[in-house]
Amino acid sequence: MKPLRLAVGLLVLGIVTGLSSCASVRNMTGKLHEKLTARLSSEPEIIGPVNAKNAMPHLDKLQHMILQKDPITYIGSDLSDYMKTGAALYHEYGFVELVVETLLVTNVNKNITVEIFDMGKDANAFGIYSKTRPASAVYSDIGFESRLTGSTLTVHKDRFLVNVIGSDESVISQRLITEIASQIDKQIPEPTVLPGNLGLLPMARRIPHSEKYEKGNVLGYNFMKQAWLADYSVGGNIITLAVFTFASSKDGQLAYRIFQKKSTSQRSRNLTLANECFEGQIDDELIMVCRRGRYLTHASGSHNKNDLQSLIASALVLQVEDETSRGINNP
Fold first, then answer.
1. Torsion sign over Cα 96, 131, 246, 311
2. If you average pLDDT over residues 274-292, what whole number do you get?
3. Helix, strand, coil distribution of the chain in percent, nearest 5
4. What does the longest C-alpha to C-alpha distance in the chain come to?
5. Candidates 3.40.1000.70, 3.40.190.10, 3.40.50.300, 1.10.510.10; correct CATH number of 45-187?
6. In the CATH hierarchy, which top-level class contains the domain 198-326?
């Protein structure tokens, strides 16, 4: 299997960030890694370029299902006509197009609504998926990641976010929406890379389904606009790790200095792979921030400095791998 690579930009204080990739191996869980490996060796059920419209379920492959309403397409500001609230969040993550289709299952007289959002980039689709992740859900292996919440099965795969919405929460409805989602999954080609900078988040001790791609005031900091985050179980505490990536080492230094100015009770820390690192407090919370070149890593959630340091050290290893895969020399 070819090494997995990633790319995403990060904006802070008006800084337009560059592309990032990582050679580290996959993903949310070992199962998903095995699943992607297996699928990449098979032929996807796809004809021609994929868009939100032709990714819709093929009714000739689904029994007892007919189109009840013609598909409706929403582009740009039209999204507000469909979503009375929440459209702004989708636009923040790069919304391109939404196609909505309503099906009737004739033998059980149930309606099913299918929504396929084209978010332009894999990272954007994952961002919306993770941003709207509920506190509890039943997860499945459809797509890159999917979850069942009430009567809705939500799937993220490549640049698409798919909602298959049943008319109720019955076993029959759940079976039907799963069947439809599975077919849509087959019609979207398998991605060959992870979303954005997901691969820069260490897998060890990571809490499943805690991964996020956030935009706008990350961790409550109004000067940090984009980051990849996850929660980790370390020493009986839940530590939140955030990885920011910048266009250059100079931009990373600027963000690092801002963190220093915002924090109190600072103390330098020495990590082998970091250019600079400190521990301090912001709003009475212990944080640790380290910079390696254009990467900035932030950890919080524990009063144990060694726990924060060990987690950041794991992230630094992945940053070295990313530099190596891209042929970048850390200044």
1. negative
2. 96
3. 30, 30, 40
4. 68
5. 3.40.1000.70
6. alpha beta
Q: Which amino acid is at 80?
A: S
Helix (H, G, I), strand (E, B) or coil at 118: strand
And the tokens for 160? Answer: 């698409």
The structure's pTM equals: 0.82
Q: What is the pLDDT of residues 2-13, one digit of tens each?
A: 333 333 333 333
Phi-psi region of 104 (alpha: psi -120 to 50; beta: other; left: phi over 0): beta
Q: Which residue has the tokens 């100015």?
A: 261
Q: Which of 229, 5, 203 is nearest to 127 (CA)?
A: 229
Say what the alpha-carbon torsion angle 9, 245, 30, 37 is, to the nearest 10 degrees: 40
* 239, pLDDT greater than 50: yes
- Classified as helix, coil or strand, 48 is coil
In whole angstroms, how far apart are CA 177 and each of 62, 98, 148, 149? 11, 19, 10, 12
The residues of the chain that CATH labels 3.40.1000.20 are 198-326
- Rounded Cα distance, 48 and 46, in Å: 6
